[in-house]
Amino acid sequence: MHAAGRSLPVGGRRRTPDPKEKLMALTTAPARSTPPTSSAARTKVGVDRIDRKRQRWGWLFVGPFALVFLGFLIVPLAYAFWMSLQTSTLATGTQFTWFANYGKAFTDPIFLEGLARVGRFAIVMIPAQMLVALAAAMVLDNLTTVLSKFSRLMIFVPYAVPGVIGALMWGFLYSPRFGPGSDIFSLFGLDAPNFLSQDSIFGSLVNIVTWQWSGYYMIIIYAALRGVDSSVYEAARLDGANSWQIALRVKLPMISSSMVMVLIFSLIGTLQFFTEPQVLRAVAQGAIPVSYTPNMYAYSLAFSYSQFNYASAISFALGIVVFIGSYLFLFLTRKQNGLK
Amino acid sequence: MAILVPPAAEAATPTTDRERRRKDQQRSGGRKIGSHIFLLILVIYFLTPLWWLIVASTKDTAGLFGGSGGPLWFDGEFHFFDNIVGLFTQQDGIYWRWLGNSFLYAFAGGIGATVLAVLAGYGFAKYRFRGRSAFFSLLLGSVMVPMTALVIPTFVLMSSLGIVNTAWAVILPSLLSPFGVYLMRVSTQDAVPDELLDAARVDGAGELRTFFQVALPLLRPAIVTVLLVSIVATWNNFFLPLAVLSDPNLLPVTVGLNNWQALSNAGAGGEQVWNLIVTGAFISIIPLIISFLALQKYWQGGLSLGALK
Amino acid sequence: MKSKILASVGLIAASAVVLTGCSSGGGGGGSSAAASCTNEIVNEDAAQVTVWAWYPAFEAVVDNFNNTHDDVQVCWTNAGQGNDEYTKFSTSIESGSGAPDVIQLESEVLSSFAIRDALVDLTEYGANDVKDKFTPGSWEDASSGDAVYAIPVDGGPMGMLYRQDIFDEAGITVPTTWEEFATAAQQLKDAGTGGVLANFPTNGRAFNQALFAQAGSVPFTYDSAKPTEVGIEVNDQGAKDVLEYWDGLIKKDLVTTDDAFTADYNTSLVDGTYAVYLAAAWGPGYLQGLSDADEGAVWRAAPLPQWDAANPVQVNWGGSTFAVTEQAEDKANAAIVAKEIFGTDEAWKIGVEQSALFPSYVPMLESEYFANLEYPFFDGQQINKDVFLEAAAGYEGATFSPFQNYAYDQLTEEIYSMVQDEKDASGALDDLQETLTKYATEQGFTVE
Q: How close does chain B come to A111, measured CA to CA in Å?
């Protein structure tokens, strides 16, 4: 059902696709450029030989990245894994204990509690960021006014603020007596809640992350939207679709691969939640214990308690959970994620 | 699918068309206002903490903790330029050294990461080489192990290479952007049709020329996005430099300001530099904002399909 | 597009050139802590000892040392404060390289590093020769049994700083016992001025522990000669009494429980929300840095309230030392630096006047100069003579566990639960005992 691709003359420019045909293609499957089936003009054997030789170029392009990847990720990762297979106690030194640390990790109530907590964060934070980002990107895509240009920058700016600086700021802003909370809430006739108490720390963290990261996701989605041929929208409009329908039924599917990518990285980032709670700890040591998230737990095990082996195991255990979660998600969205 | 209206009904369309157009304009006018209000709310939400930062940089330490105008408004006194001077003198102006380091790491790391990601993304998207899916899965999988696991091994590795406590210790690991590779792969698939590449090959272009002259121009928005994201990521990098750098002259501005904060938290006497921390924080976010402004013209609409029109 | 790529490549190449220029000798392998010195080396030919320290105004002290020692020179960098420095140190211990020769360590973490064989026992290098130059309490903190792991530098004997003007307004007399303290707290609340008498932070850590110690609590026994044995009794009667006392005050809203050392806490210190700051001797410096603008405030110093006025007990909060690391190549010279860098009167003049440190160095403590020092912040009160000298002299030292960081983190969590009404003081400490015992056993210790 890809009318636009079929009639391609070799060596010439593609004729401007009829918007109607493109729309038809859209309503049946997400738009993606697909490779043409092997042209009948070439023989199978010849194609294979040329093809294989050409495909090896892939390694050349991927090569430089692969080198750095090997050196600075795989090698340290392997070493970290090896460390996790040993146990070292403060009193008795290091022994090789195979997967004992992993058994300990997956039955460790602190680790499991941390996992449940980041799970809850994922359920709340990811939709929050996505909604804000998606809504903002869609709106910005429609407008070209000065306000929209200004907004685009302003929404992105928090992302440009480093985590540490952001946490410093929010530490001030959340402070019960020093921050503007009471001023702002009194505008609405309410009392400001204690943002750093045990009950509200969850919401406070969700707020910081949404504030900091929505702009980032918005930019990605916006770039994807900008890459969409606007003639598609004309076709839809001529068919009588209103803005909402265009947004939901036309735009969203067209950027689905970007959306999935953004969601996956957001999921991975949330499960590895570290920077914001770690830095906010400075003003909320009671509400945020050292093991608030699994990643923080691994960090304090390594750098506060010198238990590097167990810390390694916790990190890998977290990695396993993230891995399962991500692949599950990619599998469920395999039609939209744009990976072939 | 009623684009071509049968001629018999044409006589009836002018009125309905005009009515529809008027309704459209009203609706879009109303919608435009709604959209703008929505944007305004978002802008206020995102800007308030930054406004606080701007206001706070005009105060001195005493003003920060007991100022007259409250947290969101100015004091009676305006100390912004005093604070800037303070930034020059504190520890022999090391703040500017930190800022320079951040620039160096961010641009070297960010540009390097983008180059690697663009090449790799193209390779993944357009070639079917042996081991491709295995490598890509490995790539995705590696992102899933948190960086806390990697610090000690990376430190040991760098130690044996003799680069710990140097700029390379920060830049080399920053060249890795799995997100960038993923983004480039997806963008390349979406924006660079195989037909075009085939066409170029048939015309006699080699693989590299095809890449540079055919694919790259189509990828500009994606490249700019990856560039921006990589620069920001390296600029904001905190944990890695904290772990591998002990020489204060090599610190990026994030770690440096954190040092000052720790110093002020527990320090005595003249070490309370809250005003400098706040002003330093404010200045440190300006370069990124400028970068964004400089790069945003690449996002003006419809570039990716320009070659096809 | 091509020009853009060329430009990028050019930029990377240029960066590479700049980088190799900037890496100032750190690329040659080996001990990377010797990369560059923040201070100037006076005698280039002498042996160099690398030092990590974060003391304020430390460069002057380093210069003082370098100018008076021809055969040893100090190369100093500030590798971060407290935990930041410890993170780097920990990393370098684990990887086997990158540590400095001499490092500033707070006394409470000495055992934690000693047990990882990261510190040198200085008795082999003449530590006991300088023993009587330092207060017995601080020397005890730096030792473990017969071994001496560090040379003391500064201490934190505790006293009470209070707002005279608020006391006058509410008609409160300065409390000398904790009973009087509780009465004063109630008085202040009744007077309705809006603040509380003091703050009891859940994250006080060593502060909380010091208060417990004042009632006789000895939470840990540990001797590095027998490194696998540790005694834990965090829920002894002294600790329980003190925590119950504070819980009582908290439940009656007579004190607050804000986290210490945050912006909020600073504001409260400055604007009179806390009328009293139970402080270590470095407290005045801290206060001063925060609040030069508040002209109406009148601060004074008094001794810490006691449980038994007839038998006063002095306690200490904080304090740091210089230790020699196992990775030092020239341990003899490193030991000399540790012993002598803050071991002279000139160095301590700088330490007192510019860094606002409280010396553990006896000659300075016993000097007329120090006793008679008038502090303008306290309107000229001689706070050393009045308060801190006696506190320093009376302090007998404390023993810290080899997992002190963990112990403090757990203490914070338990106190926080108590404040949240999830358990009472006794229960919190019993739970703490259980947690720490379990942890120590897991770590291979024999727990007594």
A: 14
